[in-house]
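Example 3.2
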Amino acid sequence: MTAAASPAAKPTLARFIPLVVMLLTPLFFSSNLIFGRSTIPEVAPFTLAFLRWTASALVLSPFLWMARDRVRTYVTNYPVHWLVLGFLGMWICGAGVYYALQFTTATNGTLIYTTSPLMIIILERLFFGRATSWREVAGILVGFLGVAIIVLKGDFTSIAESSFNWGDLMFIAAALSWAGYSVLLKGKRTAGLPVSALFAVVTLSGSLLLAPFALWEFLTGAMMPHTLSAWGGIAGIVVFSSLLAFSGYQYGVARLGASTASVFMYLLPPYGVGLAVLVLGEPFEAHHALGICTVLTGLVLATAPKRKL
């Protein structure tokens, strides 16, 4: 009976492992703002982002070598493309996010950053003529209403007073930047590259673009990592928020399909907010609860496949 049960167990295990990986992957993505918020008092933002992506590029360098001919073709033929990807995905969404964390909470940043899928729909509609359904439009409006609730702390009268948190506004810009990165990542220019090699190219691009600013921070006496906690935060960002997060998502897409894997990313807000409250001790207020419900409702409306709904 053991021998007969063994073959049947293999498909179950093969399905179970990707599900576990995709349950953990949003947690790894969420850890970036938690590590960043705890590390930024000890490390300047451009230096932190530079160390993150330089270390990631070094770890991923074997993938560059294995696909070196295709990488050379891509880098030579499309120099502006891979530099723009590095600027949007690693410069703005790296140093820009860490800089914004000096002014706002990881809770706010997580909830605002989660709206990037809605911005992807808008960008694809504006620049590529993507057809947009009523459900997607409704989801976008509801999602951005959630952002307004978070940014304004549930008090819409503050619009007239212009009492905005600059960190929150910077996170809106970062979410738009990530949407632009995601849209540009697809297409014929990158189609010939393995995913891991492409990610290695983009991390290297980000590292190169961040290097002058990290050097400027060093020369002007900005905060550099000296303590064990600072280096521990950097290690956490590299291992969990970068390598495990991105590789986990790629593994989930390969095993479960893009539509199924993307559903798991709805866990980003509860994971991120939960970590911010439990690890950083940030307050969880009524406008956060209302905002997270509103943003998630918009995300599900706009991005969930019809059969999921």
